[in-house]
Specification:
about 140 residues; mainly beta; five-stranded mixed β-barrel; DNA-binding
Length: about 140
């Protein structure tokens, strides 16, 4: 039986690379995954680790807070005692795959929007496909 957990989420803080006394590199990053919707929505925080040569690469430079990622690997759960004496649960993933989803997050700045000048000194709305009419691409005569 295989233990593979795959999800998309948001990097919670910049990734860190450290070295074990054996010299092996490990890249650690925490990723938030939202489950449910509305009032029932919850955020799962999953600690992800990448080991060996892959941890030593350039991945650390791209895994910045706010970056959307796809992660897949072997999931485990551990328990620990918090400072208040309560028992907490932690989800940990030995990641085989970490892929960036969407654009690279540049130092948490909002994305630049491309505006075309209306000729009156004020920028017009971004040019692109209109999403006002959601029924436009569908034809009622389709037999299925």
């Amino acid at each position: 039986m295989s233990n593979v957990f795959s999800f998309t989420g948001t990097v919670g803080r910049d990734a860190e690379v450290r070295y074990l006394p054996s010299g092996q590199a490990v890249l650690n990053v925490t990723v938030a995954n939202n489950i449910g919707f509305g009032d029932k929505q919850q955020t799962l925080w999953i600690r992800c680790a990448v080991w060996g040569k892959r941890a030593e690469g350039q991945l650390q430079n791209y895994l910045k807070k706010g970056q959307q990622v796809f992660v897949s690997g072997e999931l485990s759960q551990s328990e620990y005692r918090a400072q208040d004496g309560s028992t907490k649960t932690s989800l940990e993933l030995n990641a085989n795959i970490i892929d960036l989803v969407g654009k690279r997050n540049e130092s948490n700045q909002p994305p630049q929007q491309n505006y075309q000048s209306s000729g009156q000194g004020q920028p017009s709305a971004p040019q692109g496909p209109s999403h006002d009419n959601f029924d436009a691409p569908y034809d009622d005569d389709i037999p299925f």
